[in-house]
């Protein structure tokens, strides 16, 4: 179909004037689909210019994106910690293992209700060598005299490289 000058169109058989299915709306639609849509042709300008190799490449790219999305959706773990002191070690344990230990860790401190601090009164660091597929250990430090931080939320994520 080499009609690049025309828009996409659906070519269907003509509906005869005596076509009058009966039953529920689902019955009517299914009858229409069976008789007319299943026997229709979609005319897409320029489609004849796409090679089978290009279609295979497009399909592979779509599959790669789907795989990356699936890996991201599956490879996220999160939790919360209640602080026990001004500078303590905390284990971040995962219920299910990550694919490997090349994940990123995000820490989000939680302040006491209605309390705010205008200075950075907290920090955290990964304990060297503690990062495994089933967890990690961090040290979380905060200025206890500020008294605003009561805990932190953590999230780890792993994005597969392509």
Question: How are the secondary structure elements laid out?
Answer:
Blueprint: E1 9-11, H1 25-35, E2 41-43, H2 52-74, E3 76-82, E4 87-93, E5 104-111, E6 122-126, E7 135-142, E8 149-157
Antiparallel strand pairs: 1-2, 3-8, 4-7, 5-8, 6-7
Kindly describe this structure.
It is a single chain. The protein has 162 residues and is of the alpha+beta class. The protein has a three-stranded antiparallel sheet with strand order 3-8-5. The protein has a three-stranded antiparallel sheet with strand order 4-7-6, with no helix packed on it. The chain is built from two helices and eight strands. The protein folds into two domains: 9-72, no CATH class; 76-157, Immunoglobulin-like, CATH 2.60.40.
In summary, what is this structure?
The chain has helices at 25-35, 52-74; strands spanning 9-11, 41-43, 76-82, 87-93, 104-111, 122-126, 135-142, 149-157. By secondary structure, it is an alpha+beta fold.
Q: Which key phrases capture this entry?
A:
single chain, 162 residues, alpha+beta, Immunoglobulin-like, 2 domains, 3-stranded antiparallel beta sheet, 31% strand, elongated
Strand share of the residues? 25-35%
Structural class by SSE content: alpha+beta
Terminal residue distance: 37 Å
State the low-pLDDT regions, or none: none
Task: Categorize the overall geometry.
Answer: elongated
Please tell me the CATH architecture of the largest domain by its name. Answer: Sandwich
Number of domains: 2
| Biggest sheet layout | 3 strands, antiparallel
> What does the average pLDDT come to?
83
CATH topology of the largest domain: Immunoglobulin-like
Number of strands: 8
Helix count, DSSP H or I runs of 4 or more residues? 2
Major beta sheet, strand line-up: 3-8-5
Whole-angstrom Rg: 29 Å
CATH class of the largest domain: Mainly Beta
């Amino acid at each position: 179909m080499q009609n690049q000058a025309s828009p996409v169109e659906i070519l269907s058989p003509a509906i005869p004037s005596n076509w009058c299915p009966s039953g529920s709306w689902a019955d009517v639609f299914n009858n229409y689909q069976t008789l007319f849509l299943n026997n229709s042709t979609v005319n897409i300008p320029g489609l004849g210019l796409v090679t089978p190799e290009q279609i295979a490449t497009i399909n592979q790219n779509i599959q790669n994106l789907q795989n990356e999305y699936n890996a991201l959706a599956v490879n996220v773990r999160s939790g919360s910690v209640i602080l026990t002191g001004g500078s303590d070690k905390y284990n971040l344990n995962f219920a299910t293992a990550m694919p490997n230990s090349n994940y990123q860790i995000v820490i989000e401190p939680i302040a006491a209700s209605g309390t705010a601090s205008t200075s950075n009164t907290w920090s955290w660091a990964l304990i060297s060598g503690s990062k495994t597929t089933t967890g990690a250990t961090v040290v979380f430090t905060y200025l206890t005299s500020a008294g605003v931080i009561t805990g932190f939320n953590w999230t780890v994520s792993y994005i597969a490289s392509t």
